[in-house]
Each structure stands twice: as structure tokens, then as C-alpha cells.
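Suppose a colleague, Dr. K., hands you the sequence of a protein chain of 343 amino acids and asks what its three-dimensional shape might be. Before reaching for any lab equipment, you can write down a predicted structure in C-alpha cell form. Begin with the sequence itself:
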Amino acid sequence: MLDAERLGRLGRAQATLVAAALVSEEARAGFGALVAGALAAVLARPVGELVDVGALGRALDAAIAAQTAERSLAPLLAEVGQRAARAIARRPEPLGAFVPDAARRELDALLGEPGIVDAALVRAVAEDPAIEAAMRDVLYDALSEFSRNVNPFTADWGLPGLLDKLFPLGKGALKKALTGMREDFERRLEPETRKFIGGFARRALRKLAESAIDKSDEPEAVALRRRIAALVLARKLDELAWPADDPKIARLRAVAGGVLGATLSSAALREELVRELGVLVGEHGALSLAALLARWGVAPPDPQPLAAALWPVARAALGSDAVRSALEVLLTASLVEAAARGA
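The predicted structure, expressed as C-alpha cells, is then:
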């Protein structure tokens, strides 16, 4: 009978052989069949056997913790965002190049749907102080220009022209008096104009907002939405994104990371996800995963490309010291058991 030391050496030797076989080219060739078989087995199982709502809830608790989001998701988002920005900057195509004809037709139809304009948003924009200030400036400039053109103190058809006709000579005193009257008139006119514009701008914006809402489904408004969409689709990708080295990109990533972290760490979100998982299992738990995916119109992945993509990770895991140690323990235990039975 072999002693424990020899059994241990034999177990280690067998573990070495098995570990090498697991990462060999032969294993790689058979990995596709293994993945295909495993995928088929999973697809054949009822959904209720594949989803443990309680365990998934606990996993979500760990995954959406604020600490996890800050240490894992935010840095990952930053890296992905930076690489995406660089990739976008290299592409010469317009955004529309990635929108197929069927999607364009659907977008065109969507933009023509009634009720697509958010009335509350239009009103909020119209009532914003910045928009009101811009409207006041525009109205003041318009009224000022109009006033200069029709001001009887300055216009060619006004008092200056009349004086030239009535008093071709010796009108200096009258002109001086007229200039004083004009300056006094303009001093009085300017504050009155601004006072009028202050209230009128608000009323004009409200009327503009209500008109835009009321007419949002008319042909002219629909055509405007479609023209805006066409202009956006015609823009090149690098024109729609900041350069990868722009400091604003980092700030945008920080904002997105903060929002993502706060959202994922929300207890309410976790509860909703767990509740929906429970509803899913309750409604479809008896169906096989394949039947549920077919009901949803989802095609299962092709196992061969999936296997090729997974093999580098599987090879690294199977060739790890942890797996080898586990194999050594199992094989040594089986040899000890076999030797005991033989005794």
C-alpha cells in the first residue's frame, strides 16, 4: 500500500498533468463544444431554476454600493469615455452615416407625431430669466433703431427737413433749440422704453411659448423638427463631441460618474430591480430560458464566437495556481480513498 507522502506526490503529478491539459491547444479546440453544450443546457432549464431572486438582490446590494461605484464604475466610465472620445474624433463620417434608412423613416414619422412637444419644458424655457434678458435686449435694439428712423427730431422728413425748407437762412437759433428738445426727448424716452420693454418682453415670451405649443403639431412646426434632425444627422461626429483632450471632457465624466454612482447606490433602484425580477420569475418561471427569449424575440448568442471570446479568460483561470491547488487536493483525496478501498 502506498503511504500518504507517495500518494501526495502522485496527486501533485496528476494535478500538473491535468492543469496542463486544461490549457492546451486540444482544450482550446474542445472549449467551443463545451460552451455550446453548457449554453444549450442553460437555455433548456426553466427560468425559475436559473434565477434566485434573493441571491440576486444581495448581489445587487454589493454591486450598487456607493463605494463600489466610486472605485470601479466611475474609473471604468472615465476610461471608456476617453477612448470613445478619441475614436469619435478619428471618424470622418456624419452622424447620419450610422442611421439606416429604416431608422430614418421611423425618426421622420416620430417627429411628425402629435403631442411630441413638451409644453411644460417650452414654458419653462420661455420664462427663464436669461431668455427674458435676451428678449429685452433684442426689443430695445429694435425699438431704438425704429425710433431713430421715425424720430421727428432727427429724421430727414421731420423737423430738420422742415426747417431747411422754411428757413433756408438764419435758422441757427432754431436748430440749437431743436437739438435741446431732441436731447431732452431722448433722455425721457430711454427709461420709458426700458420700462415698457420689461413687461412687454415677459408677455411676448409667454405668447410665443403658447403659440409654439398650440401650433406644435401644424405642418410648419413638424417641418422645423425634421429640419433640425436633418442638420444634426449631417454633422460630423467630431463636430458633435469635444476633443478627447478638452478639460470639459474630464468634468463631464466626473458629472456622469457622480450621477451613475448616486443612481446605482439608490436603495429605491435596488428595490425596483428586485421587485421586477420577482415579477419576471412569477410570470415566466415555468418557461425555459430559450422559450422566454423566443417570446421576447431575442436570439441566443452563437456559442462558437462566444467561446473564442471567452477562451483567453478561461485559460487564465484554469491555468491559475488556485485551480491547480484545488485539483491537487481533489486528486490526492481520490487516490487516498482508492488506496483505502484497496486495503
